[in-house]
Amino acid sequence: MAEQNQPTEFEIRDQADKMARELVRITQNIAFDEEALLDMVQESIGPVEHFFSNYTCAIMEMETKFKVLNEWFSLKYDGNPIESIKSRVKDYDSIMRKLIAKNLPRTLEAIEENINDIAGVRVICSFEEDIYRLARCLLQQDDVTLIRQKDYIRNPKPSGYRSLHLIVSIPIFLENEKKDVKVEVQLRTIAMDFWASLEHKLKYKKNIPPEKMEELTRELVDCANISASLDKRMQNIRNSILAPEQET
Ligand code: 0O2
User: Fold this and answer.
1) Which pLDDT band, with edges at 50, 70 and 90, does 246 fall under?
2) Measuring from each residue's beta carbon to the nearest atom of ligand 1, which residues come in under 6 Å?
3) Which atom of ligand 1 is nearest to the CA of 117?
4) C-beta separation of 70 from 80 below 8 A
5) Which of 2, 20, 74, 195 is 20 to 30 A off residue 97, Cα-Cα?
6) What pLDDT, in 10s, does the model give residues 15-24?
7) What is the secondary structure of 168-213 as a DSSP string?
8) At 77, is the pLDDT very low, low, confident or very high (cuts 50, 70, 90)?
9) What whole-number distance in Å separates Cα of residue 139 and Cα of residue 184?
């Protein structure tokens, strides 16, 4: 009885032939609808491109604000407070990882609402006092709204991490609208930046044995303390150099 239900070789070939013809038909249809497919892709990518472009524009605005302050202070104090500015729009993978970690829906609205560092601007100064001076000048601008401030210079992280973090909102002006966009500004000295990039490398190294990792972590905390003390001493030297000039 069971044997009677087995398809014959002819039936199998016929079935395979039908499937092959169906496959060709589907493939031809896809090729035929290529335009529609492109439109569909464009329709869903368009809003995402606009969304990220807002953050690129906000970065441009923020960089300009710091470049203007740098120019002004260089004339006033005969030296540039800013050594360099590094900016980035957070990549899609990191945003997704943050959404998952925070248990948030994967929508543009949730990203805009909850992820504060999509636009990131890192301002590197030589001296600690310049960090606070620049932050004060930025925050007193009437189009800048402070959302959150974290001072990891006065209160370093247990890892030794130091930087001043500002989450601010600034307007960008588009064709027919003004849009407020959040930017994370990290202000740090050259020494803080040097330390943070090395520590960041260690954080993402997977193949270091636990004991070695503990040792390197302790070593980094020690380096952070030395670097903080170096920043203070360099600041004091600069203040001593500038003091007689400022008195005259
Ligand atoms: P990436 O790739 O550097 O941008 P939140 O962003 O508010 O959800 P959190 O932890 O409150 O999260 O933010 P926080 O403490 O202000 O720190 C955010 C960023 O500061 C990090 O970004 C790092 O750039 C930097 N940072 C904070 N702590 C450390 C640290 O211990 N070592 C180093 N090297 N950098 C640090 P991301 O999101 O990690 O990624």
Assistant:
1) low
2) 94, 116-117, 120, 150, 157, 159, 161, 165, 196, 199-200
3) 6
4) yes
5) 195
6) 777 787 777 7
7) EEEEEE-SS-EEEEEEEEEEEEHHHHHHHHHHHHHHT---S-HHHH
8) confident
9) 13
